[in-house]
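Reopening this one. Same input as before:
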Amino acid sequence: MIAAKVKGALRLAALDETAERLGLACGQPLADARAMIPALDAVEAEGAADSSLLETLAGWAERYTPIVAIDPDNGLLLDITGAAHLFGGEAKLAEESRRRLTAQGFFTRAAIADTPGAASAAARFGSTAIVAEGGTPDMLKPLPLAALRLEPDIVAALYRVGLKRIGQILDTPRAPLTARFGDILLRRLDQALGWEEEALSPYRPLPRLIAEHRFAEPIARQDDIAATLASLAATLARGLEERGEGARGLELSLFRVDGFVARTFVGIGRPVRRPSLVLDLFREKFAGLGEEIDAGFGFDMIRLAVLAAAPFDNAQTDLGGEALTGADLGQLIDRIGVRLGAEHVGRIEARDSHVPERAEAFVASGEDERRKKLPPPSPFPSAPIERPLRIFAEPEPVEAIGEVPDGPPLNFRWRRVLHSIARIEGPERIAAEWWRGETFTRDYFRVEDSEGQRFWLFREGIYASGTPEPRWYLHGMFA
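Same output, byte for byte:
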């Protein structure tokens, strides 16, 4: 027995068959249930654990279709359009899924219908496993109104006026129902009947391309997995070539017979298609993780999916088929990325800002090319602005003494070391971008100390009455 807190009171949320035979029901207050059965054993529901388990089951259900949505009421919704024939038809697909889940220790109910609402109603309240095409209205008529996925208070209000079955509202005038119970009642009815479209929201983004292989007997050897991966990569390469694209992000999913799904993602610095390169990248990934693939009792399905892609420019080749591109820097970046993590390898990208610490950003090599594009940086002025080779991510405060309050510094102390300034260039004033709502003002100086080291200093703030006293910072160092 599982009890959950509903509006401040513990109520029964899940029952076993024995509890149902004793007359208990879901939604019943726990105190009333214990009054009926003093020896009742009930545990409090763990919502986070249940949600995590449901997500795990959703990942397992991807063996049947990539479109898997989570029904918050302890269920899964699968769009099997065009996939049922792979399992011998709808009946065999439903039977296999139930058999596998039962073997994992779950009690299941399943139904197949034309709409998500009808399938949910048939699975939870009906006796029909497969609703024939066009048979949804007849299937819904004898079911209780709770089958329409309505809130309990709406169902209770309908009961009070004598409406208990879906068939009772099918031919009832709509205006009075909407005025009294809101539009959710008829919306749920129309969704179940297919009169209003209800799109599924997959719990994970859909891949751009998928290639998968199912095995009559589970496999466990590393060589068999590698050979299957190479075959799937070749299949994806043909699909990518037709689209004129290359893969920027690939995911390998290994479905074990016990229900566990092992997923491995590889982010790639530039678009790729070549199967041998894809195989090498995954080998590097597993080597970087420092662990072997846990095959358990074996894998009965392997899937390779393209999660991110980008336009692919075909390279010119010589008569022997070799690319005339010189050293393959992109391949080196990819191999380092899968070893260290794609987020640790990338490039510096310009940004449209004149504030030094905002003028550039680090972009990971495996970042999806479909990310939101930022506006291009402003064109550089005719005379280049001298900037230090090393710019700190955040300016570091220093102690400085100037000739006059608003003049250049004579010396400064940084990291407990005093530097005497021999030469100065500046100032160069940089103010905040007005659209950010900031008001700082900086005067930058290029300075050289008595030992020949060159620094980039700035004074933030100006000397004026009613303003905070300006402070000095070191923002970078020249070569």
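So the earlier flakiness isn't reproducible anymore. For the record, Confidence is low (pLDDT under 50) at residues 368-375.
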